[in-house]
């Protein structure tokens, strides 16, 4: 295996084409430098320099070998730099799970932007998953962080849910619905309407929040058709198949045939949580949690 130190010596002499100046720059005695170059030539099996009493020049083989020597040192420098970044958590990868509606959140998009700018050597792997699937993947290490609307139950004691914000719910209606003429809508007005929800087996924080709201206000929840994605729920609303309660961030979709109205009940909000393992979080996960917790979506 080639000695990295000898490669550095070779490049220094090749740059100066003078053993004395190269030795001075390397803080070596000239005889020691000459011995090191000779040892490298013996190992390579060819001469690197033509030497005379007055001139030093690269041989044909030395000239051909020089770019490879430079590249080897550059790659070593990059490897050393990357090793330092991996050790401090500024390089590597981060697997981030998120619930369907979270992708539309300003906090989510701003956190991704700031994280990418602050840690360009960390590769983000984004995985859209329902909350219940996130818990399992966080526990087995498939995910590093989950952004969810639903806190994990007690049996997931190894997971920690960090509250980020409460976002208002809005009512999505077909554009020709009479309720679109109102400034806002009360939950009581929805008892006779079919609500488009996520499937019951999907385990989402949105369904859980809506059910809790209706129970608190002693209202009947009239279940309509279901969609597995936020976009499919809005498409069902546009098709006149029902109405939907969704996080306010979905208004960014501006789907034709759908209008949005705020709810009168101030408690009609939904929580956004960052879920991670309590122990053994990677430096990259810690960095992302710090950034997402500091974001100000209204800014």
TrEMBL record:
Gene3D superfamilies reported in the protein's UniProt record: Periplasmic binding protein-like II (3.40.190.10), Winged helix-like DNA-binding domain superfamily/Winged helix DNA-binding domain (1.10.10.10)
Keywords associated with the record: DNA-binding, Transcription, Transcription regulation
Name listed for the protein in its UniProt record: LysR family transcriptional regulator
Similarity field: Belongs to the LysR transcriptional regulatory family.
Residue stretches making up the HTH lysR-type domain: 2-59
Family matches, as PROSITE patterns: HTH_LYSR (PS50931)
Organism expressing this protein natively: Pseudomonas fontis
Alphabetical list of CDD domains matching this protein: PBP2_LTTR_aromatics_like (cd08414)
Domain of life: Bacteria
